Amino acid sequence: MFPEPEVPEPEQPVKPEIELTEEGSLTFVMKGYESDGADGGTLQPEGFPVSIGIKDKSLQGTSCKFALSAARRLVDMPKYDTMIEWKDTLSIVEGRTCWIRYTTDEEYRYLKLRIAYIFGDEVGVEYKISDVIQKEIQNINANDPIEGKSFVKEYSMPHLNSENYYVEHTVTYGGKEILNYAYEWVESKKHTAWVAFSFDKTTSQKKVSRSDAWDTDRELPEGWCPEESNHISDGFDKGHLCASEDRVYSKEANEQTFYYSNMSPQMSSFNGGFWASFENLIRKWARSREYDKLYVAKGGTVDQLLVNFTGTCKGNDGVLPQTDANGFTIKGLACPKYYFMAILSEKGDEYHAVGFWMEHREDYGYEYNKFAPSDVMKKYALSIDDLEKNTKLDFFCNLPDDIENVVESSWKETDWTW
After folding, report:
1. Which residue of 74, 129, 180, 283 shows the fewest CB atoms closer than 10 Å?
2. Do 401 and 266 sit in the same domain of this protein?
3. pLDDT of 218-237, one tens digit each?
4. What does DSSP assign to residue 52?
5. Are 87 and 212 contained in the same domain?
């Protein structure tokens, strides 16, 4: 018999070397490509404030954005300030180069990186720490931090007025505290100056129904919050400012919208028809997946009230709405003459803004389940700069000044999906 031929052992793959494609660059082997970052091996470049890790076969980092480059070598990459599209993560693909930008309220820092190879659970990268660039961010009108108020620097917030009382309503969702909505309370008017909130992947979800959980707001000092007695038989609806349908991602979030502090005395046809048309439009934008995040500030004018008014259409309670010479309802609540909305969209590193300004009237011709078409709503659109002139409020003050100045100066119909 002939001996069995020897079968050679299969050659084991050899881990590639990381080629240096720019003078002064460094290399690092990250781990966790197959194990979703479980094995550690995050990149922590010297002089860069945060580490870069792997999740879902993508690069990510706290407060970091990633911009993909078409170059194959670090030395050939375009400058960071020419990059247009910045994303929260970057899929790991061999040979890919990217800029990484870390952002704080005071500065940007930049780092360039190349994915040299993928080898099992390892990702070899080349990076250049000499291109970590600090850039001061001017933000003169930003809100100052407030102890115990975690969201005062959110982009949705207008500039705070020290004469008013600032409130944040938060919920715990997925083990994380998130802002449900915030507002400023004007105690002498028993009304908010504005409410502010945002839509993102979490808060734009529709998971619960309207709760009708009417209640006083315990975040206000005792005796400040209106009650049901302030709304009964006055001819006006209890008009939500942060709408019930805006917060249907959790039961607790929806219940918070039924605090009387979130109500404004609105004529029934305005609340359920014209105003609701704009609320529906904003929710359409928020749930369209066209934007990463939508920031909203809205409310009624407490410095411009509806005075000496008697309506011609009875409210849902069968009473004609009335206000006195000071613009208060018969139950003592300030009744705004105008209502407004300020909306800021964010997609990657791109921002757009638009405002809406409308008079509080009962004769628009739109009722419950009969909403204004988009061509009508466009007539009430204006730039944020113009809305600020009307309201005397400073919207989106926490945006870096260079971005704020551009997005607030004008609005374009084509920026929005009508």
Report:
1. 129
2. yes
3. 999 999 999 999 999 999 99
4. B
5. no
Where residue 253 sits, what CATH number does that domain have?
Answer: 3.40.570.10
Q: Which residues lie closer than 8 Å to 163 by C-beta, 6 or more apart?
A: none
Residue with tokens 């009382």: 165
Helix (H, G, I), strand (E, B) or coil at 138: coil
Q: Same structural domain for residues 275 and 396?
A: yes
Of the candidates 120, 225, 227, 186, the one whose C-alpha atom is nearest the C-alpha of residue 334 is 186
Report pLDDT for 13. 79
- The answer to the question of residue 6 being in a domain is no
> What is the number of domains present in the chain?
2
Confidence of residue 83 (pLDDT cuts 50, 70, 90): confident
> Is residue 288 over pLDDT 60?
yes
The three state secondary structure string of 228-262 is: HHHCCCCCCEEEECCCHHHCCCCHHHHHHCCEHHH
Token duo for residue 42: 């995050």
Nearest-angstrom CA–CA distance, 260 and 225: 7
Nearest to 124 by CA among 266, 46, 25: 25
Say if residue 186 is in the same domain as residue 100: no
- Quote the tokens at residue 51: 């580490």
CB 328 within 8 A of CB 322: no
Are 188 and 265 within one domain? yes
The pLDDT, as a whole number, for residue 1 is 57
Tell me, yes or no, whether 185 and 93 share the same domain: no
At residue 404, the pLDDT reads 96
Q: Which range has the worst mean pLDDT, 50-64, 293-307, 315-329?
A: 50-64
* Domain housing 85: 26-136
Alpha carbon 165 to chain centroid distance?
22
pLDDT at 131: 61
